[in-house]
Structure formats: C-alpha cells, structure tokens
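TASK: fixed-backbone design
INPUT:
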C-alpha cells in the first residue's frame, strides 16, 4: 500500500463537509443524515485525511462487500500503536483472506443458530434475576440490565466461561480501549502488557486441562484448533477478546436502544404488546432507526472506481451504515419509527465476508431480554428528569445511561 500518498488531483467539487465525530450525531443524527444522503457518495477530510464517504444504501452495501478493492487490515502508519489492541496478533475483524478465512472457519461453529438457540433459557433466567435484583419503580437500563445480561450472554452462555473468570477478559478489554489515550509512539503500557500476559496464562491453563480431559466447551474447541496447529495461543486470546468486546457492547446497546425507542413511542409499545409476534420486526426497526453502529472503515488496496467516485490506493473509505438506514430510495417515510414497516435486508450487521458473526447471538439475546421486560413490566416510560447519555466512542451510537420509570407486574 502506498503509505505516503497525498491523494492529490482529486476533484475538489466532490468534497463535502462531513463531521463523523460530531457528538450530536448520537442524540439526533437526522439533520446530518438527511444532508449527507442528499449529497451521496463524496470525498471529505476526515481527521485531516482526504477520504471517500459512503452514506447511501447501495454505496454502503457495495463497500461492505468489496474485499477485492478494500482491505480490513489497518495500515501500520505513525500512531498505529493506539490501534494495536491485540498485541500484534491477527484478528478476524481486522484481517483479509486467507488469514480471515482461517479465523472465521475456526470461530463459526461456536456461533451457529442451533448452538445459539440452546442458550436462550439461560439468557431468560439471567434477565429475570437482574430485574428482580434491580427492584423499585425506576430502572437504569444499561447498568442494571443490558450490560450485565450481554456480558453473561457472551462470556458465560456463549463462551462457557465461569463467572469468576470474566475479570481476565474484562480487564484486558479495558486496557485495549485505553490505548487510544496514549501519546503517539508511547508503546503499550505495563498495565496492558500485564493484562495480556494474564489472558495468555489463562489460556495456558485451559490448554493443560483440555490435554488431560477434552471438555468440548466453546473455548475447548479453540484450544483444540491450537493443538491441531490452526491457531496460536495469542490468536486464541485475540479472538476471545474480539468476541467479548465486539459482542457485549452492541448487544447491550441494542437492548437499551429497543427499550429507549419503545419508551419514546408508546403507541408502538402498545402495538407490540397487542401483537407480540411483531417482536422481530420491532428489533429490526430499532436496528434501522437507532442502530448500535454509526460507521465502519476500510482502506483502498489499489486505485479503483467506486460507483463512479475515483478512489486512490491507501485512501480511507468510511462506510456510514447508519445513514443508509434512512435512504428514501429504499425506505418509505424513513424518519418515522414504525414497527409495521416493510422489512428490507438490513445493513446494520454489514455484508459479504465480514458479515457479523454474532448476528444470531445478538438477535436471540435481545429477543429474550425484551420478552422478559414485557412480561415483567405492565408499562415503562421515559424519566424526563434523567436525560439519556451516549458513549464517546465515535463508531458507536451507544447509550451509556437510560433511566426509565417502570410499573412492575405483581408476580405470584
Ligand atoms: C446488535 C448487535 C451487533 C451489531 C449491530 C453488529 C455489527 C457488526 C458489523 C456492522 C460488522 C461488520 C463490520 C465490517 O464489515 O467491518 C460486524 C462484524 C463482526 N461482529 Fe458484530 N455486531 C453485533 C453483535 C455481535 C456479537 C454478539 C458478536 C459476538 C458474539 C459480534 C462479533 C463480530 C465479529 C467477530 C465481527 C467480525 C466478523 C468478520 O470480520 O468476519 N457481533 N458486526
């Protein structure tokens, strides 16, 4: 890849003013999206670098699926250490074939619909326990329900880790996300190195145990791949942290956003109560209207023509999937939250070879938890005194705090 390209010679008339990091994008993206969708495929200076930006449905779908022209590997330019979450190890989300194919094949059996469906009763049990524990007539959805249920679903139900071991991966993930705050060139801090070493030693213990008595547990399957020479120990850690970090936050966000949207639209909540079979459609509408992800990005492998926009080798390409959910060429009356709307293929989970591997898990857990919420509460509504607060992570539209007033049912 041409790392020194200054991307000169681009048609200045195709540049637009696009701020992907505006904080208001989280609370009210409509004014931004409507302008960007009107303009369509364009260039913009993102973090000072000329980049291609896709916002319309067709362009977003093309970019997600185009692994011939676009790479998921992040170029190791100055400041790369801030993005080196996985200690230099290869990772499914940030790799291209053939590495991506090897990692995806190894993880896929853990996340098959048949394997996931069996986990539903456990998720229902955890959600019920959390709501009982929360008590009272207000609920802070994220900390009292969505985050603990998502953490238990991914680390406990899905990966089969005992709760007392969660801390190993929780600590490493926190270290990973604090790398962004380091000064350029600083390298990984001692606390990150200690957290990575603790996760490696945890895997070593499992390798030892599996050698004596194979458990056929999800983590056991990854260890088996290690013993067959398919995965290194470091790669096991990198994939486990990817599943934890990449799975927990969007599931929690989807649960929280679903409750937020239903609380903001009491007519839609009543409709769902009257017709529970609409639950899947309601979750799809939340994925469209209040999507957990705002944007993803890739880099051009070579010069190519992207649906009429010349893209140069090494250029970043931003895929604003959330904006595409409001494309009026696909969705009629797109700025209306409507659980009865005609369902279209969603872009919220991506397209092509990197399509979200946790798709079934996310849907199953959200369906199960919202089912428990509808059974447990006669009604819930926004608590006007406590505004919803969003995360600072620019790629996510993730509420960190949603407080609702809840009317509990009297349980026998
Ligand atoms: C509502 C929940 C979720 C949303 C909206 C979501 C969204 C996405 C999107 C848009 C991609 C494609 C990224 C790209 O092409 O660059 C993706 C990939 C991925 N997701 Fe999810 N995700 C969710 C839940 C999960 C869960 C529960 C897990 C794990 C248990 C997970 C693990 C992954 C992984 C490992 C990838 C990379 C797959 C690959 O590169 O082959 N996600 N997700």
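OUTPUT:
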């Amino acid at each position: 890849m041409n790392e020194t390209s200054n991307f000169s010679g681009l048609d200045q008339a195709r540049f637009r003013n696009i701020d992907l990091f505006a904080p208001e994008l989280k609370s009210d993206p409509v004014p931004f999206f409507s302008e960007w969708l009107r303009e369509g495929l364009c260039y913009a200076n993102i973090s000072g670098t000329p980049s291609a930006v896709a916002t319309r449905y067709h362009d977003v779908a093309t970019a997600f699926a185009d692994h011939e022209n676009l790479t998921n590997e992040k170029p190791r330019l100055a400041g790369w250490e801030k993005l080196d979450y996985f200690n230099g190890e290869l990772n499914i989300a940030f790799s291209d074939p053939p590495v991506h194919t090897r990692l995806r094949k190894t993880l896929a059996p853990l996340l098959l619909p048949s394997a996931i469906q069996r986990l539903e009763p456990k998720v229902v049990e955890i959600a019920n326990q959390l709501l009982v524990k929360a008590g009272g007539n207000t609920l802070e959805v994220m900390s009292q329900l969505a985050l603990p249920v998502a953490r238990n679903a991914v680390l406990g139900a899905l990966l089969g880790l005992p709760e007392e071991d969660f801390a190993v991966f929780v600590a490493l993930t926190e270290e990973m996300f604090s790398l962004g705050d380091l000064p350029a060139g600083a390298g990984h801090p001692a606390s990150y190195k200690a957290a990575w070493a603790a996760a490696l030693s945890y895997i070593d213990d499992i390798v030892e145990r599996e050698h004596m008595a194979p458990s056929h547990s999800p983590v056991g399957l990854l260890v088996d791949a290690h013993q067959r020479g398919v995965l290194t120990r470091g790669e096991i850690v990198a994939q486990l942290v990817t599943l934890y970090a990449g799975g927990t936050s969007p599931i929690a966000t989807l649960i929280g956003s679903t409750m937020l949207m239903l609380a903001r639209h009491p007519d839609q909540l009543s409709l769902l109560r009257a017709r529970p079979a609409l639950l899947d459609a309601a979750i799809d509408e939340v994925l469209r209207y209040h999507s957990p992800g705002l944007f993803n990005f890739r880099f051009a492998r070579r010069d190519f023509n992207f649906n009429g926009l010349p893209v140069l080798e090494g250029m970043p390409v931003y895929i604003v999937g959330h904006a595409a959910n409001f494309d009026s060429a696909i969705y009629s009356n797109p700025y209306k939250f409507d659980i009865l709307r005609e369902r279209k293929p969603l872009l919220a989970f991506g397209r092509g070879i990197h399509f979200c591997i946790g798709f079934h898990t996310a849907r199953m857990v959200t369906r199960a938890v919202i089912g428990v919420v509808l059974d447990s509460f006669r009604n819930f509504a926004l608590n006007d005194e406590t505004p919803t607060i969003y995360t600072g992570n620019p790629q996510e539209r993730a509420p960190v705090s949603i407080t609702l007033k809840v009317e509990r049912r009297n349980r026998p």
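COMMENT: The mean pLDDT is 92.
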